[in-house]
Amino acid sequence: MEGANGSYRAHALILPFPSQGHINPMLQFAKRLVSKGVKATLVNTIFISNSMHAFPSSFINVETISDGFDDRGFSQAKNCEDYLTTFQAVGSQTLSHLIKKLKDSGNSISTLIYDSLMPWALDVAKQFGVLGVVFFTQSCAVNNIYYHLHKGLLRLPLLGPSVSIPGLPLLQVMETPTFVYDSEFFSDFYHASINQFSNIDDVDWVLCVIFYEMEKEVVDRMGKLWKMGTIGPTLPSVYLDKRLEDDKDYGINLFKPNTSACMSWLKDKPRGSVVYVSFGSLAEIKVEQMEEVAWSLKGSNCHFLWVVRAKEEAKLPIMFKEDVSEKGLVVTWCNQLEVLSHESIGCFVTHCGFNSLIEALSLGVPMVAIPHWSDQTTNAKFVEDIWRMGIRPKPDEKGIVRREEIELCIKEVMEGEKGKEIKKNSDKWKKLAREAIDEGGSSDKNIDEFVTKLVSTQSV
Ligand code: UDP
């Protein structure tokens, strides 16, 4: 095939859900496809395109569609349901226009790879007769829970104290996603999560962001249901196999990072001495919880680097930044990969967003897991009990994790006996992550198989 960018073997249109944690892994997957001779076009919403701080990569083409909320994105919608239904209506139309436009300009596509939160995109793929490929950015354990609920194989409310689901370890009710155990409160989010599976039996290929070794049993089970491939970890190549030229960062930042301030602050800190703290791009932490985290960091007496997004800053205790300035640095956003891979980092206090978790696992950084919502409660269980890369401080009866608990866990991870074991496991996972994506590794093979399928598919 010949296109504007020279010759290529197939053309993939890639449609992530418009949030940082969904764009990053799908953009990285696009880069992997490009490295294998596939042309990749990333589709952003108009709002994301206007608010991002950098252009992803000269190897990736970028196009836009509308979610119906061009000015302010999700925050412009009345609620989650309003956002998703509007996105479905406006997105389907504008996506169809885009595919036609590409075709008319000699850039026909062979596949539409879409985020699992937008199952309607499969209808658009079918309408054009191209391969419809769903991309899951959460763990297969979490996908498996939603799948069981969708099929009615698991019913709500969950009757505790523990829940047994085929392919998964026994889970306490509170270790299932918050959208499941608190499904009435989160009813919009619950329905969106279940809806990911509404047409899964009609998709041509299922791609998962993990690598096989992370969740062998559940991957084997799900692999019997659909044509499925694990393709992770999806970190920039410089942090893994180094096979992709110039692939040093994700490339799309929805917040402006304070990179130089962070890196020069970390520079002279002793090896393994710094606690890095971040609750990701979306979490709105309760004021009481923020205070407990703040005082635990001060109490730990460790150096710490804490990302508090501009919108959350007012929740910090008065004069906190000034008070701790000898030990701690608080920034509104950082280049998390550069920070996590810095030798001074000894532990990551994380909300267990799935990207953060895979990043920590791939870079071998031990964790203190303080899940906030969604899949993070299940992810935290896996961090502690399955991957054995961290510990979970226990919340009190109000759901707040108290400073003493956090402080104890930080100390245990940084200097305790359990910490030594965790460090050993972290080194093991770091090695496995690299092997999976390296040439001939489980994910690399899956990507090759997928590319072979694309090449043999007619583009439209
Ligand atoms: N991230 C970053 N800088 C920060 C905090 C987070 O670059 O200061 C990135 C992080 O590397 C990850 C993403 O933002 O890739 C957050 O995704 P995750 O799934 O961890 O959490 P979410 O934001 O979706 O809750």
From TrEMBL:
Protein family (similarity comment): Belongs to the UDP-glycosyltransferase family.
GO biological process: monocarboxylic acid metabolic process
Source organism of this protein record: Cephalotus follicularis (Albany pitcher plant)
GO molecular function terms attached to this record: quercetin 3-O-glucosyltransferase activity; quercetin 7-O-glucosyltransferase activity
Keyword annotations: Glycosyltransferase, Transferase
Name of this chain's protein: Glycosyltransferase
InterPro entries, sorted: UDP_glucos_trans, UDP_glycos_trans_CS
PANTHER family given in the database record: GLUCOSYL/GLUCURONOSYL TRANSFERASES, GLYCOSYLTRANSFERASE
EC number(s) stated in the UniProt entry for this protein: 2.4.1.-
Keyword Glycosyltransferase: yes
Keyword Ligase: no
